[in-house]
Amino acid sequence: MILGHEKQIEFLRKILNSGKIPHAFLFCGKERIGKRKVALEFVSWILGSSPDNHPDFF
Hints:
Blueprint: H1 6-18, H2 35-47
Helix pairs in contact: 1-2
């Protein structure tokens, strides 16, 4: 759970569940608010594994 980003997480879950994932997302906002953490969580849902051990994750 990522606190403070509930609306963004819900939005990303709806997109993932729809099966129509766009080719790009732009995570923007103030520094140090958790954009990277949200993005990494979303990628882990798409890849179905932890980003740390998936060969397609940089």
